[in-house]
UniProtKB/TrEMBL annotation:
<dbReference type="Pfam" id="PF08240">
    <property type="entry name" value="ADH_N"/>
</dbReference>
<dbReference type="Pfam" id="PF13602">
    <property type="entry name" value="ADH_zinc_N_2"/>
</dbReference>
<dbReference type="InterPro" id="IPR050700">
    <property type="entry name" value="YIM1/Zinc_Alcohol_DH_Fams"/>
</dbReference>
<dbReference type="InterPro" id="IPR013154">
    <property type="entry name" value="ADH-like_N"/>
</dbReference>
<dbReference type="GO" id="GO:0008270">
    <property type="term" value="F:zinc ion binding"/>
</dbReference>
<keyword id="KW-0560">Oxidoreductase</keyword>
<dbReference type="InterPro" id="IPR002364">
    <property type="entry name" value="Quin_OxRdtase/zeta-crystal_CS"/>
</dbReference>
<dbReference type="InterPro" id="IPR020843">
    <property type="entry name" value="ER"/>
</dbReference>
<dbReference type="InterPro" id="IPR036291">
    <property type="entry name" value="NAD(P)-bd_dom_sf"/>
</dbReference>
<dbReference type="InterPro" id="IPR011032">
    <property type="entry name" value="GroES-like_sf"/>
</dbReference>
<feature type="domain" description="Enoyl reductase (ER)">
    <location>
        <begin position="16"/>
        <end position="333"/>
    </location>
</feature>
<protein>
    <submittedName>
        <fullName>NADPH:quinone reductase</fullName>
    </submittedName>
</protein>
<dbReference type="GO" id="GO:0016491">
    <property type="term" value="F:oxidoreductase activity"/>
</dbReference>
Length: 336
């Protein structure tokens, strides 16, 4: 372990749109199956905003003060006594299950990380885990799409969208996406087959008969998506309401199941009207899936898309830039 007993972090003290606070806290404990990573870079994700605003309390309980940051890249500086996959000096990247990446160090289970792609630097690698795992779990695990099928990916020029388009094309899918005029060239370069300018066009009137929709917007945009999908097709959202189907998959208790039914009641009605299967995804960390993504990245089939890099002390500005909705690709926080 590093000789220093404390580390710098950016914390939130309560739910809401309050500025982050820079402080020092004790170095994290390292369990038998954990590695201690010196973080070189982390990235900002919509999940940071959702957690900050208390919108995922139904899914994930956190203690205050809390360190946000849901993906990172760095170097292993200590390994627990039962760790077998990694050694001191390994360059790794991952998605920590409980956040904590806006910090100088993080202790993380060895199953939640993978060796950093050799062709990426730390900033590029830090942009991948959350959006990569989210895209993989939606397209490959939830939707189980096959080559030749058609999918609409909302917000194609955003952090998730830029990765999801590339992954979908690597899977042989036909991809439609929504973006502004400013993002059109970017999504075209990533391989999008059909581009909808959401400012001047209505995707739900232009697209029909799609096999699936990958929703990253929620709200009215999610509701309109049902018009695009053919009967018995699928919609998976990462921001829409968790429903009873999600509760069953997660083996939620009686109270949570009823809560899920309540918050998703409108979507459930629409689902029945259009005869389309709706699912919610709350992405899970997976080192094994990161290894699969690494193969695509190292073969240059998928490349990171970075909007801007901020120094650690400007984490608050990075969050605000994400909240503006103007980012094209990922926003990075350079820590080391």
């Amino acid at each position: 372990m590093s000789k220093q007993e404390k580390m710098r972090v950016m914390v939130m003290d309560k739910y809401g749109k309050f500025p982050f606070r820079s402080t020092e806290i004790p170095m994290p404990a390292v369990g038998d199956h954990d590695v201690l990573v010196e973080i070189h870079a982390a990235s900002v994700n919509p999940l940071d905003l959702l957690v900050r605003d208390g919108k995922v309390r139904i899914l994930q309980k956190i203690d205050m003060p809390h360190v946000l940051g849901y993906d990172f890249a760095g170097m292993v500086i200590q390994a627990g006594r039962k760790v077998r996959k990694f050694k001191v000096g390994d360059e790794v990247y991952g998605r920590p299950s409980k956040g904590g990446a806006f910090a100088e160090y993080i202790s993380v289970n060895e199953d939640d990380i993978a060796l950093k792609p050799r062709n990426l630097n730390f900033e590029e690698a830090a942009s991948i885990p959350l959006v990569g795992l989210t895209s993989y779990q939606v397209l490959h695990e939830k939707l189980k799409l096959k080559a030749g099928q058609k999918v609409l990916i909302q917000a194609g020029s955003g952090g998730v969208g830029t990765f999801a388009i590339q992954l979908a094309k690597a899977m042989g899918l036909y991809v439609a996406t929504t973006t502004s005029e400013a993002g059109a060239k970017l999504v075209e370069s990533l391989g999008a087959d059909r581009i909808i300018n959401y400012k001047t066009e209505q995707f739900d009137t232009l697209l029909q008969g799609y096999d699936a929709v990958f929703d990253t917007k929620g709200g009215e945009t999610l509701e309109k998506a049902f018009k695009v999908v053919k009967k018995q097709g699928q919609i998976v959202s990462i921001v829409g309401p968790p429903n009873a189907r999600f509760g069953e998959e997660e083996r939620a208790g009686f109270v949570k199941m009823n809560l899920f039914r309540l918050v998703a009641r409108k979507i459930t009605k629409i689902e029945k009207i259009y005869k389309v299967k709706y699912s919610f995804l709350f992405m899970k960390p997976s080192g094994k899936q990161l290894e699969i993504l690494t193969e695509w990245i190292e073969s240059d089939e998928i490349k990171p898309v970075i909007d801007r890099i901020y120094p650690f002390e400007d984490t608050q500005k990075a969050i605000e830039h994400s909240e503006s909705g103007r980012a094209k690709g990922k926003i990075i926080v350079k820590i080391k």
